[in-house]
Amino acid sequence: MSGAGAESGFAGLAAENRRLRGERARAHLLDLATGVLAVQLGVSTGDAAEHLTALAGATGMTVEDLAADVVNSVAGPRAAEGLGAPPPASPLPARRSRRTAAVVETAEDVAAAAQALLDGGLGPLGADSVWLWRLVDGGCLRLAGHAGVGAAEAAAWWWIPPAAPEAIRAVLDGNAPVWLPEGPTAGAALPGAGEGAARAVLPLRRRGTTEGVALVGWPGPVTFDPTLRRAVGGLMDVAGALLDRPDGEEAGAPVLVDLLDALTHPAALLRTGEATGTPVVEVEHVNEAAVTALGGTLPADDPSLARAFPHAHTELARLARRARHTRRPGHAARLPAGPPADGPGPLLDVRVLPAGPDRAVVLWHTTGDPGLATGRAVARLQSVATFQDSLTGGDTMWSEQAYGIFGMARDEAPLPLLALRARIHQEDGEALTALLRTLTERRTGAQTVLRTVLPDGSVRHVRVAAEPLLDGDTVTGFVGAYQDVSATRRTELALTATFDRLTAVRDQAELRHQVALQLQRAIVPEAPALGELPGGLTVAARYRPAAEEYQVGGDWYDVLPLPGGKVLLAVGDIAGHGIDSVTGMVSLRNAQRALAFTGRPPHQLMGWLNEVTLRTGGGSTATAVCALYDPEDGGLVWSSAGHLPLLLIRDGRARLLEPPQDVLLGAVPSYAYEERRTALHPGDTLLLYTDGLVERRHEGLGPGLARLLAVATRVAGRESPELLVDALLAMALGDTDDDTSVVAVRVRRPEETAGREEPGPQRLSPQAGDGS
Questions:
Q1: How many angstroms separate the Cα of 451 from the Cα of each of 187, 422, 426?
Q2: Residue 227: pLDDT band by 50, 70, 90 thresholds?
Q3: Pick from 617, 563, 564: which is nearest to 589 by CA?
Q4: 172, 179 Cβ separation under 8 angstroms
């Protein structure tokens, strides 16, 4: 949704809310008038309603105006005098007063009533604010509603102790209004526009008893003539009758809303908590800059985090929950915006701050902030010289220390990072290329050490730490720091061979990690496209990598049509993390694919896979589910090696399919696995998943499976496997930061496939080239 489209949508919602409130007030006014006529004429309410309509037609008045006149005729002299000053010759002000009273009387809470008082009654009298306090135990006053007032000011006057300001205390003691045409006396504190601005402090009565205090403010001095006093007092009679309604919002959130709305960069207020035992993070408010940055995704009717941040909600929810529990801010340098390419840009320099027991504030930028990015780069080093390059026509800027590091005079032009190749050792060209590729292609920070050749021929080792400046997904420049580490390098050359060996081991571990990470991402990307397979199957699969990037794991999934018409469905998880688990995963997955083409049943495939694990896994074990679906009879034959139970959704209900109690792959040689058969009906959805979806720290799998059942039943109406899988992942059922693989397979109903051309053989399971 575009920003303009979102704004028009929000305006439409606001207009619809106003229309509904007006309809409710109109119905209330007509009911009152009908009741009055029924009593006066001695007829039924139905006859009275018909009489009211006929009388309005005969007099040429609207039904609402006539109803206001009827109610005013029995409401006493104060209401009949209306809101105007002097007393009007026509009944229009009195009608307006009665209509305002109808809106106030139908308000859902005191806060809404206060706004209705200001909009319909006090505002036309020149007032710009109204405060309504409720008298509570101990003689204190608590703010029940307000309008025309900032949230921060409301929070300051939320609670008034018994030692109240003189004017308020006089109203409570004398049970009579206090009129301050030029504001309170010097030094007396009262809320309002400022010194010299008029205030009216009035008692709020209910059934003849003073149960609160009202304060009406004007922007300047006012002459309180008798007509104005009667009009304001009449409105306060209506307000006093509403003190048994609930208060408005608590003080905390509106103050935060005011603060966020005052910011010029995007910000959102999140509410954290639990619903039926499941952690929930919802969007409570986003400021105007956030609406623009998100492309108009303000959740007007859906407060879920996934609605406002469809591609970053998982990480934001994790940061918000962590901030809530640790009471410390969280940070992410960049969170994805996702497709389409012309949609909202990524979230940059994201900060998540705890704000009370159940709220968190999210702050971010849409364009790279040089100050923040420089700070991240400086944090990588101890003593630095900073630089900033522009790729859009600007200059390169160096701090004074950078000239000394490169042996250059202050009157020489600083060198951009892209032009540094001419000043470094020729063997370090690849390191500079890798640094620039990380900055421009991966759009993330990086560092390296380059040998810089000075004008006198000497060589210095210079560490370069840099961060990209982003405008959406476009790199517009670099900021960073240079550090002369020549002394450290000379010391390194003097270290012993033991240290050299340890360094080699460290480099090897880093290389193994990078290979594992790249291999894992190539084999199991995060979100493959929807697939429609022969036999009336629709399939969606997701792979969510571990939250901690260094914890590359061994999850895999596979969905593969076979030559005989059957379809292979599989998920698995090798124990552990790192290169060994990833390479083991690739071996098992490829072995399973090859063995499946033999056409043998799942229990025999699982037995062969167990032998492969024993002979090539290096002592590793794995859990797995292997299933074959036959479109001819709708049968699913499956075996399980210690894996979690499959989940079947049928007719809006979810249930777990109890697996055979068979051992893990790689645990026992020559093991004979059992087999189960389940008939799948049109409309059924089958879910295969790994433990990252349900497992939580410090508890067994039982509660996690129960949560999965509850959530799956709740979202069972989402027939699209894509929507179902996204909904399950958005619920954050597990919290172990482990990898998660999920496959949802739905059997299409006959009417869904009628007239549709059956797709040919395809591979849903993604792979790196042909080597997976």
A1: 70, 11, 9
A2: confident
A3: 617
A4: no
R_g of the chain, CA atoms, integer Å: 36
Q: What is the CATH number of domain 252-365?
A: 3.30.450.20
Q: Other C-beta atoms within 10 Å of 132: how many? A: 28
Its sign, for the CA torsion 218, 224, 230, 231, is negative
Instruction: Show the tokens assigned to 638.
Output: 């499956």
Q: Is the peptide bond before 86 cis (omega within 30 degrees of 0)?
A: yes
Of 340, 341, 392, the C-alpha closest to 368 is 392
Q: Is the pLDDT of residue 385 over 80?
A: yes
Going from the C-alpha of 712 to that of each of 6, 259, 315, 370, 733, the distances in angstroms are 31, 39, 22, 45, 11
Distance CA(96)–CA(119), nearest Å, equals: 11
- Kindly report the pTM of this predicted structure: 0.37
DSSP-assigned letter for residue 279:
E
Using N-to-C axis directions, what is the helix angle for 721-730 and 701-714, rounded to 10°? Answer: 130
Cα separation, 670 vs 662, in Å, equals 13
Length of the chain: 772
Tell me which residue of 451, 487, 464, 478 sits closest to 385, measured CA to CA.
464
485, 449 Cβ separation under 8 angstroms: yes
Across 347-373, b (16+ Cβ under 10 Å) vs e yields bbbbbbbbbeeebbbbbbbbebbbebb
pLDDT of 713-732, one tens digit each?
888 877 788 888 888 888 76
Spatial distance between the Cα atoms of 662 and 626, rounded to a whole number of angstroms: 13
335 pLDDT tier (thresholds 50, 70, 90)? confident
Architecture of domain 370-493: 2-Layer Sandwich (3.30)
The answer to whether residues 144 and 134 touch, using CB atoms and an 8 Å cutoff, is: yes
- pLDDT of res. 688: 95
Residue with tokens 């997701």: 542
3-state secondary structure of 509: helix
Q: Which fold has domain 520-753?
A: Phosphatase 2c; domain 1 (3.60.40)
653-707 pLDDT per residue, tens: 999 999 998 999 988 999 999 999 999 999 999 999 998 888 887 777 888 899 8
Can you tell me whether residue 212 is helix, strand or coil? strand
The pLDDT mean for the chain works out to 76
**Per-domain residue ranges for the chain?**
1-106, 252-365, 370-493, 520-753
- Would you say the CATH fold of 520-753 matches that of 252-365? no
- What are the two backbone dihedrals, phi and then psi, of residue 571, each rounded to the nearest 5 degrees? -140, 155
